[in-house]
């Protein structure tokens, strides 16, 4: 009798594992609590599906920090070029953007997903939607809550790919953590990653500038720095530049209760040039008009400078050119918390590496595998998130094939 495999979670890791297993002639059923698969994958592709990155593999691997040792084998076995070749096999050619990021030529996720689901259908992969996994029965069978009542499944092997805890309305709500902890599996706390931060803006500032971007700024936190964009929100800051520094800033807040980010509003102007321009006569211009003309500050950037001056108890108009240049080159912004995990791009934390083997099978639960964002890793945006999800899904799929063939 042919083996049967259950995959819980219809995101990229689960789908690529299903393809890996079904291609070897093994029956696969994918269970997911949503009505259709890959909801978060589709959301990620709305602004351009960043599949992976083109930088050298050794540099690429460093982006995973402390998780690199346990992710290395999977990513080396299914590296960025393999992911690009796979997309090409589905009729979705890729290209490298100016930043080194890799995108499908169609740019969106939907054409790729449609071709992928057709392939899975051709391979005989079955989908069971609206199946909410609730844990294990006493005999190790998987339990699901459905609209028709409880559904019990006893597969030959199971793969859990339930994602993290960000964007729960798309399917990954992190409730699986308690189920694994109850089984003695070590799972680190789920935390927001690539997330925004909370700032106690004044009402005057936020009412005028919420939703406006700070463009072409340099952001620094301790030894970490980046160039990019930050967007003022009613509650704080978000945007690509903020996400790039989110891990150390989040950890500092968890440790100290706050973190101070510094923003250089004109990183391309040397300090001496800033001082020279700010030393020009202001005449009867308002401070914001003077800053706009002298150093090309946008209204939101000038507003941020004013916000920082007020916090110091000084007026911009009373500051010397040198002091004003110094403030514009390093505006301090006190971060008092992270934005909610529900709105984070991804999640840090998860099943700790000591729980599983190189094929991602749990040591204490033979036949149960884990992959994707459920694992204890995080990475910046830039294609690293999807690459690791795909690679661990492929590795777990191969591990399942070895297990069911024993």
Number of strands: 20
Assigned CATH architecture of the largest domain: 3-Layer(bba) Sandwich
Mean pLDDT: 96
Strand ordering within the main sheet: 17-16-13-14-15-12-18
Structural description of this entry:
By secondary structure, the protein is α+β, with helices and mostly antiparallel strands. It has two domains: 249 residues, FAD/NAD(P)-binding domain, CATH 3.50.50.60; 142 residues, Beta Barrel (Elongation Factor Tu (Ef-tu), domain 3), CATH 2.40.30.10. Helices cover 36% and strands 21% of the residues. The protein has 15 helices and 20 strands. It has a seven-stranded antiparallel β-sheet. A five-stranded parallel β-sheet has the order 6-2-1-10-20, with helices on one face. A three-stranded antiparallel β-sheet has the order 3-5-4. Strand 4 and strand 5 form a beta hairpin. The longest helix is centred in the last third of the chain and has 22 residues. The chain starts with a strand and ends with a helix. The mean pLDDT is 96.
Question: What is this entry, summarized?
Answer:
By secondary structure, the chain is an alpha+beta fold. It is 36% helix and 21% strand.
């Amino acid at each position: 009798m042919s083996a049967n495999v259950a995959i819980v979670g219809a995101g990229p890791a689960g789908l690529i594992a299903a393809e890996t297993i079904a291609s070897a002639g093994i029956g696969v059923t994918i269970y997911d609590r949503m009505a259709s698969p890959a909801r978060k994958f589709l959301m990620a592709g709305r602004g351009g599906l960043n599949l992976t990155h083109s930088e050298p593999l050794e540099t690429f691997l460093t982006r995973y920090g402390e998780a690199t040792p346990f992710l290395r084998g999977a990513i080396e076995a299914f590296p960025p070029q393999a992911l690009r070749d796979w997309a090409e096999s589905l009729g979705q050619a890729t290209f490298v953007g100016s930043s080194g990021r890799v995108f499908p030529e169609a740019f969106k996720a939907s054409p790729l997903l449609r071709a992928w689901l057709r392939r899975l259908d051709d391979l005989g992969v079955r989908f069971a939607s609206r199946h909410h996994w609730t844990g294990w029965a006493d005999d190790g069978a998987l339990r699901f809550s459905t609209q028709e009542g409880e559904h019990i499944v006893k597969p030959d092997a199971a793969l859990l790919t339930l994602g993290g805890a960000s964007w729960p309305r798309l399917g990954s709500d992190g409730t699986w953590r308690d189920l694994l902890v109850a089984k003695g599996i070590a799972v680190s706390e789920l935390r927001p990653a690539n997330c925004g931060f909370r700032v106690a803006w004044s009402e005057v500032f936020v009412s005028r500038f919420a939703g406006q971007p700070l463009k072409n700024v340099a952001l620094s936190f301790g030894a970490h720095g980046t160039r990019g964009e930050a967007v003022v929100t009613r509650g704080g800051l978000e945007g690509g530049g903020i996400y790039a520094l989110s891990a150390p800033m989040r950890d500092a807040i968890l440790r100290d209760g706050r973190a101070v980010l510094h923003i250089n509003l004109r990183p391309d102007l040397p300090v001496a040039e800033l001082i020279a321009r700010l030393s020009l006569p202001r005449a009867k211009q308002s401070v914001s008009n003077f800053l706009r003309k002298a150093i090309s500050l946008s209204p939101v950037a000038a507003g941020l400078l004013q916000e920082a001056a007020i916090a110091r108890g000084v007026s911009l108009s009373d500051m010397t050119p040198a002091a004003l240049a110094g403030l514009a080159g390093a505006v301090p912004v006190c971060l008092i918390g992270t934005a909610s995990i529900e709105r984070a791009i991804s999640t840090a934390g998860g099943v700790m590496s000591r729980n599983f083997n190189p094929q991602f099978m749990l040591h204490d639960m033979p036949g149960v595998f884990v992959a994707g964002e459920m694992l204890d890793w995080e990475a910046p945006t830039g294609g690293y998130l999807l690459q690791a999800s795909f690679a661990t899904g492929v590795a777990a799929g191969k591990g399942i094939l070895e297990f069911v063939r024993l």
